[in-house]
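Intended use. Records like the one below are meant for learning the mapping from a protein sequence to its folded structure. Do not use them to infer anything beyond what is encoded.
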Amino acid sequence: MKIKLLRTVSLGTLGVYWLGIFIGTHIPMGVRGLGRINDKVLHFGAYAGLAFLLAAALSTLRVRHGTLLLPLVVAAVYGCVDELSQMAVPGRQAEVADWAADVFGAGVGVFAFALLAIALAKFFSSTCTVPRETVPESVG
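Structure written out for the chain above:
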């Protein structure tokens, strides 16, 4: 896949996902029908996904430093802003425990991205070998 297409897809996916988080966290509490799901699990999962997608998008932008730290920081800061902005929504309040679940989830998301990146790099480096007959004799 060409890098430009990969960049477009990863940034588009990140944008849609992030918008979904914003909308989902700013719906008044009485409207949602999530049943008995622990909201800390939702926070953890949402921010794991956000940090994973942030890391993936950054990897397509050729960011050399902070590819793994920057998504964690951005997700943590956004989680704080998101929690504080929920105070203006009826039936919602800011909770430190929610923000902690956001940060922990973001850490796991970045870790998952790092593991996937390492696995893919190993896979492609071991499967993408140049056939011996294509190497000039002066090199081989």
